[in-house]
Fold this sequence. Notes:
The complex is a heterodimer.
Chain A (H helix, E strand, L loop, with lengths): L3 E4 L2 E5 L4 E7 L4 E9 L6 E7 L4 E4 L2 E6 L4 E6 L8 E9 L6 E2 L3 E6 L1
Parallel strand pairs in A: 2-11
Antiparallel strand pairs in A: 1-3, 3-8, 4-5, 4-9, 6-7, 7-8, 9-10, 9-11
Chain B lengths: L4 E3 L2 E4 L5 E6 L6 E8 L3 E9 L2 E5 L6 E5 L5 E5 L8 E8 L10 E2 L3 E5 L1
Parallel strand pairs in B: 2-11
Antiparallel strand pairs in B: 1-3, 3-8, 4-5, 4-9, 5-6, 7-8, 9-10, 9-11
Amino acid sequence: GENVEQHPSTLSVQEGDSAVIKCTYSDSASNYFPWYKQELGKGPQLIIDIRSNVGEKKDQRIAVTLNKTAKHFSLHITETQPEDSAVYFCAASIRGFQKLVFGTGTRLLVSP
Amino acid sequence: KAGVTQTPRYLIKTRGQQVTLSCSPISGHRSVSWYQQTPGQGLQFLFEYFSETQRNKGNFPGRFSGRQFSNSRSEMNVSTLELGDSALYLCASSIQSGGIQETQYFGPGTRLLVL
């Protein structure tokens, strides 16, 4: 079945450093890869997404890269700030299906 | 535009009871999906509704059910509650105007505690 692996489970960085979170998916039919940020007591918030016809997408300090051959996709956050501290989830889904398969999450802590 | 709303936000039930959770999608969104979030299993897909029809279903027992109304609002029901049903139940909505995968926007969730 579908599976998404996410690493690392926790990540501590200093303010201003970069943070990278990596995910691997198992189903080669997956074609949509969103990233969500979840803060305590809140639902997941979409921060960026990428479709399989694109290799990279950037939005200010956040970027996502996709390697379809290796079935890898990564989230890159540059110039991290304390407010970036949260749990980040990657997910994958197949065209035509609204079912998102989530990774296990990465707890990011940005220290001032 | 108002976001996805879920009611109630918190709920305490006892084993054997049943519970109904409600979700109002973003205006204009026609697809509603439900997810269960627990520390042990993470975020897991329950089911998805579109135009009052269940289109996709995850690997959950029949005690978990849902429905969608003509205004796209959705409810999910869990019967014969078990301790393991304690979780954050999240609802997500998307436009679903075509065949491409649409972005899902999540509500704040309903936290269910089963005693």
